[in-house]
Amino acid sequence: MEIRKSERKNAKIKLALQGSAGSGKTYSSLLIAKGLLGGDFTKTAIIDTENRSADLYAHLGDYNVVSMDSPYSPERYIEAIELCEKEGMEVIIIDSISHCWDYLIDVHSNMPGNSFTNWGKITPRQNSFINKILRSNAHVISTMRVKQDYVLNQKNGRFVPEKVGLKAIQRNDLDYEFTIVFDVDSAHNAKASKDRTGLFIDKPEFIITASTGKKINEWCVNSIGEVEKRVIIEIKACESVEGLRYIYSKYPKLQETIKPLILKKKKQLESIQAQIIPNHQIIPNHQIIQQSKSTNNGVNNS
């Protein structure tokens, strides 16, 4: 057991897409996979529980398909994931994981005895399946169906029924397990309802493309540690106080980390400047951070 600094390095994304039938979950998953691997589908596999719907998009590229028929037990899903891992797949699409929950609900409803006690036998099976997804060394994209409903929306003076998605067909709060959750509507518009990457949260609705997967891949491979190393190199190479101020303002998320390095480098530069510049012209130590913050505020206000 040891304690270490946190570092995100070559992360494997665990992503979920939830939407009603026909919202484009399978197609969107394949586009994300394409972007994740730079357009190469040879290391992508889709576990298909949707009556071979994965084959409908074969024109996108030579991805691999694992056709899975009932029963949709957690153990069979785990077996399919292990098969993909054994074959060296780097992206695994599970389309969909809702069938697993339907299976477990059916098993529970047919169990004799106390309902609450019976959940104690079902939950470990579900947890084993979810843990297999989370611990996989591949990117995993899971689709989830949502319970459907219709609402009347007024268009051109008429009320038109439109299909909307409600709650995902899976265990409550399962979305908290994923790094990103995209909600996809019937018009194929996606919006992030959960996003630990910060790439898509609070952003307008958008259509998923291969560039979506490319953005996610860039987040996965660029660790915070590597960014810090580049910033340290910049600080050491900096030759002016103005340059230090610029570096500080350029990395707002790292300011608390690099502040001591900035001030140390500033003192080194001042010792050199003091040989040729009168002392009263040297910027005091406490002003560099304040001036940089003022510069940031000015940029933000503009």
Q: Which range best describes the helical content: under 10%, 10-25%, 25-40%, 40-55%, 55-70% or over 70%?
A: 40-55%
The SSE string, one letter per element, is EHEEHEHHEEEEEHHHHH
Low-confidence stretches: none
Our Rg estimate from Cα atoms comes to 26 Å
Structural class: alpha/beta
Let me know the average pLDDT.
Answer: 85
Described by the principal axes of the CA atoms, the overall outline is elongated
Instruction: Report the β-strand fraction as a percent range.
Output: 15-25%
What is the rounded distance between the termini? Answer: 50 Å
Largest sheet: 9 strands, mixed
Number of helical regions = 9
Could you tell me the number of beta strands?
9
Question: Helices, strands, pairings?
Answer:
Elements: E1 14-19, H1 25-36, E2 44-48, E3 64-67, H2 74-86, E4 91-95, H3 98-109, H4 115-135, E5 139-155, E6 158-168, E7 180-184, E8 189-195, E9 206-207, H5 210-221, H6 224-237, H7 241-250, H8 255-273, H9 287-301
Parallel strand pairs: 1-5, 1-7, 2-3, 2-4, 4-5
Antiparallel strand pairs: 5-6, 7-8, 8-9
Helix pairs in contact: 1-5, 2-4, 3-4, 6-8, 7-8, 7-9
